[in-house]
Protein 1
Amino acid sequence: MIRVVLPAHLRTLAGTGGEVMVDVAGHVTIGAVLDSLERRYPVLEGALRDHVTRKRRPFVRFYACEHDYSHHSYETPLPDAVVSGKEPFLVVGAMAGG
Amino acid sequence: MSGVRVLVGTRKGAFILESDGTRDHWSVNGPLFGGWELYHLKGSPADPNRLYASQSTGWFGQQIQRSNDGGRTWEPVGNKFVYDGPTGTHQWYDGTPHPWEFKRVWHLEPSLTDPDVVYAGVEDAAFFRSTDGGQTWHELPGLRTHSTGSQWAPGAGGLCLHTILIDPQKPSRIFSAISAAGAFRTDDEGQTWRPINQGLRSEGIPNPAAEVGHCVHRIAMHRSRPNVLFMQKHWDVMRSDDGGDSWREVSGNLPTDFGFVIDVHAHDPETIYVVPIKSDSEHYPPDGQLRVFRSRSGGQEWEPLTDGLPQHDCYVNVLRDAMSVDALDPCGIYFGTTGGQVYASPDGGDHWRPIVRDLPAVLSVEAQVLP
């Protein structure tokens, strides 16, 4: 199981608290985690990435193990620490609050 | 006794204000969806407890929320607003081509008869419909793909379809308004549209009397007389007596003919309300006095309504979707400000007082009468 931390607004929207766990079959890539997350919480479709282009929304960032994966392709494998559940995959709202 | 529910959308959430028919004492419920922008909430005329809300942020995009119990509980429904077919370009502020991109839902207009049918006006300007209570949305592309679409340019708030009015006598006739393209009318429930801007003059465009390019801020009608339309344009208050085929100016003695809101008294179709705002760029009331102006003659002659409204040092704005009327007798008038006040008059505008004073900036106000 992959641990995913969502920003507060998306936790409220998805009706979850704290971390969420998603199951990823096969390679644990950024795209596979996002696909699994959206399957489990369909309300998040469109909130992380565009419905049509699938591009990451500009103010959404992806971090893991103190590394910024926001600009990596969806095929990028995530680190072993995320795959093993030792570290979470972080979905972050960009710092743009003023 | 009947009650009133006022749905308030703000920059940081939604609020629901309720009172009995006296409109003396109000309960305040909120914030709902705290931290999100609520551009608009509206109830179904066919089922007052069916509410729709447009919830968005720049971070996480668009959500539509639906309530079946008058706003006590909500559920997110469909948020997939995808243009139907190639999108092409509209004009950017400098006249260069700019690709059409969905940004947010500005206005939700439920059907007059079916709680599951609701229309959405969006930015970049397009007209969507849901027939399953907001679960799925489909663009009716006839408006966006109108032959003039590539000439439309955004207003300061974006290229937004912000007004949808359904003709109660002929529901397939719908009026819409887009900043800064103008007003449009369909007679086949959104399949085909025609611009209805004859008589408008806008000095900020190359041809002041062009077919499109007018920054229409708001249109209003009285349900008993849908051929008579009132318009607050960027400049000028206008009136049409022929369903928008032609317009004439009725700004009359207003201190400034700029403003955003316009609405019609629930029981007197010749009584209309505006809130004059100083512009071109100040966007606050003239002389620091917040005044609603009422015309009892369908425009031209206006009287200021000030009792209970701040008459000095007031520099708030009243945005285009932030005025509403209730259908009680006497008619109640409501408006919200960018300073977070929601003012109510239970007597057609003669006396005002704030229901709440310190909300986030108000984007929209909708009043409902409850059985």
Note: The domain at 2-93 of chain A is CATH 3.10.20.30 (Ubiquitin-like (UB roll)).
Protein 2
Amino acid sequence: MSILVRNVSKRFGDFVALDDVSLDVESGALTALLGPSGSGKSTLLRIVAGLETADAGEILLAGKDATALAPQKRNVGFVFQHYAAFKHMTVRENVAFGLKVRKRPKAEIADRVDELLNLVQLQNFGHRYPAQLSGGQRQRMGLARALAPEPQVLLLDEPFGALDARVRAELREWLRQLHDVVHVTTVFVTHDQDEAMEISDQIAVINHGKLEQVGSPRELYDEPATEFVMTFVGDAQPLGDVLVRPHDLELSAEPTDGAVEAMIVRVTLLGRDAKVELHDTSGAEIVALMTRADFDDAGFWRGQNVWLSPRHERVFESA
Amino acid sequence: MKRVLSRLGLRSIALAYLAVILVGPLLIVFWRTFQDASAAWDALTTPETIHAFKLTLIITAIAVPVNTVFGIVCALAIVRKRFWGKGLLNAFIDLPLALSPVVVGLALFLLYGDDGWFGGWLSEHGIQVLFALPAMVIATIFVSLPFVAREVVPTLREIGDDQEQAAFTLGASGWQTFWRITLPSIRWAVIYGVILTTARCLGEYGAVAVVSGRLQGETETATLRVQERWEAFDVAGAYAISIVLAMIAILVLVAMTAIRPKEERA
Amino acid sequence: MVFVGLPLAALMWEATSEGSQSFWDAVSSPEAVAALKLTVGASLGVSVLNAVLGTITAWVLVRDEFRGKIIVNAIIDLPFALPTIVAGLTLLALYGPTSPVGIDVAFSRTAIVLALMFVTLPFVVRTVQPVLQELDPEVEEAAHSLGASQTRTFVRVILPNILPGILSGVALAFAKAVGEFGSLVIITGNIPFQTEVSSVHIFGRIESGDSAGAAAVATVLLGISFLTLLSIGVIRHYATRHDR
């Protein structure tokens, strides 16, 4: 099901959470809303779900105006950062909740719950209570619960934010695989660009309530539309007037036309890469990344003066 | 060494304090009553005393559910909704705790008495409030108002409304969400509040003393009867009723202790 | 809100119904003044006693371990669970004319203090307990490692943190004590000018049909209750200032 966001604005008191945001979410895709804390991405998600109302603008679900529709009627599944588990119900009862509310027959509910518990690999935990589960298991339950009533859209609000790094990475991968099986339009909110880049089909970058850019991960990385996108998605640093990525810096032992002079202050060898930290003539820090092979070939050493020129650069109008 | 001494010292002070003020007096009454158990039993089974107990129970049976519903509704309003006058509502709920029961009784007396604001209208329609059950119920409701609300508010606040939002997205209506999600999540706070409310209703004296007229066999509650028996020099009678009330109080303490950890964990 | 507000409005109305002069007369009658002085004085005294003994009790309950602590903890709530009239009776049994240990303070001001101690016992204990529980032991350890003695640590580190708890407990105890009725009715004998507190005085005024006079004094008590509630709110606001 497609989601169309049209000119949505929202403020909380004096704080502008969303400023005239418009977005087309591809039907069936896995889309990320990416941005720093306070950027408005969670607010947007919640407006799509009907848990908040926009001050202005419209939300269209499958082409129909859903702006004033209550969350109960939108048929969206929502997964919360802190699980929002029904603590007094077992895992089975949690997952069955959406179906019970729709008054489906008991046998049908039981089958569907079994199906979903298998899907999220919690089949042996059906009779446990959320308090007895780990964070990752609770979130898988949250996912199963949201999927049970066959929603047309699945929304996840920083779903892995409360989990530790290893579990986060596992579940991230697992969400992608789930999406490949279940094929429901999925939108998830994250502040972690690695997470967005790794699993999404489409990323919408939001900052200070404004949409900066929408595109595939490759587009965002190779062709960032704004300075913010370039520095948020991947690393970027200023070199004079331009912005350059660390691995796009060419180091030369000889002076070159238009190159910037800098001294190598530290070299760290990280597996396949070599990270070279430099100070330019004004003392500003610059980081260059190259392969070990290239580094060894060039034979750079600490204290050496080199000349830096960018391979690809981007120039943005100063804000 | 000094630390051990000071620890034991403090402990003794605390325990002595409790013994002198609370435990000692209670034990004496128990002891005295059971020395002459048959007199106590006779005193308990007079028609007036039985009626007094019945009356106390009836009043409690009305006041507790009313205050429970009221408490839950108020707690929901205070925690979940925004409206003008919220701070005022909060303060009003706490007010009965700070008021003297006699002041409460007087206020109701002035409101419902024959010369009172409502009194004229009521007596025209033949409804008797004062010196009858209705006034006693109203007084008891007033003094036991805060307990359920005060217990539920912090619990509701701590739980947050994530679970309720989740229920909405899963298709549950407001009412369904309340019954299946909100109420179960606050059930221990409600139960604890109900226990406190019940104890307060059973033990109310001052406000009811003012509005009831204290007619034996008609508008005398158990607590009023204790005082009546004492003034009639029926020490055994007064002690006997007190023992029953004290035993109920101990049951209340046991219930509170049993439920408190569940309430805190929620 | 209507339920609570209306009776109180009626009260204040009646209090002033016979004119402000008679209001003043009722409030300033020698008996009323004596009762008020006694009430406020005793309540203040009891509140201070509670502050000390209640804090010690809370400390013992939180920091000390001994068999039967659960029972001791439960007993603290007895004044909440026991009817006030029964409380008065039990105190009279132990400390009155028929006392098995020979202490007879019935019909004296000591009896008032005793009864008020009973009914206000839980307040300071219960407001200080959770604060003490929350106190991070590491803060005390830090103080000790920096050289502070037990007493100094208590005064400088612990006390400031539990002070709001003590104060709000004291305020609650004061409010309860000022209005206390049931436990005093039997044990004090209600002797005007000697052992009659304001609540009993008001009751007497009602019984003799002087509603206006009763209402006048009641309004004074009402004012004291409001002030106390207000101060509790202020204390709470002050106590959480570091958390904001």
Note: Residues 38-265 of chain B form a domain with the MetI-like fold fold (CATH 1.10.3720.10).
